[in-house]
Design brief:
With 180 residues, the chain is mainly alpha-helical. It is built from 9 helices and no strands. The termini are far apart. The chain binds zinc ion (ZN).
Amino acid sequence: MDDIILITKAMNLAAQKHIDQRRKGANDEPYINHPAEVGYLLASTGADAVTVAAGYLHDTVEHTETTHEEILRGFGENISDIIKEVTDDKSLPKAERKRLQLEHAKHASPEAKQVKIADKTSNLRSLFRAPPADWDDARKLQYINWSKAVVDNCRGINPKLEACFDEAYTRVVKSLKPAA
Ligand code: ZN
């Protein structure tokens, strides 16, 4: 598939799948703003077309009714495998999912590692810009530290992308009140 077709096809499917969803933040952003940011972060830091397309699709299976079969049929095995790598098993308790995400990050493919870093970068940017109304600083810090731990297990592939994460991390940490 031509790169532009591949990427716009992924954008289009993501937009359809996330059509009714909103982000957790207090500004109630449309959900699609998040995969859009992830895709652009990947493209602008030199990731290849397959990784960018996977970036647009990364939350479709976890957050919508989309199946891995559907991704496989529409986008082929490479992209389907990346989405499998970055999709949490929602049948598991949340703490276990978080622990597994950390563990799986270490052994993930270079493509999945980049999607993970872009995902966490976008999430920390959102946390800075418009945190969920019911999150206090302790909750934010817990999320920030976990995100950084996942990203630390994904380093060594795309330094430009890592720099974007580090910038988002530093900015959001600075925005928290120092612990008493
Ligand atoms: Zn995401």
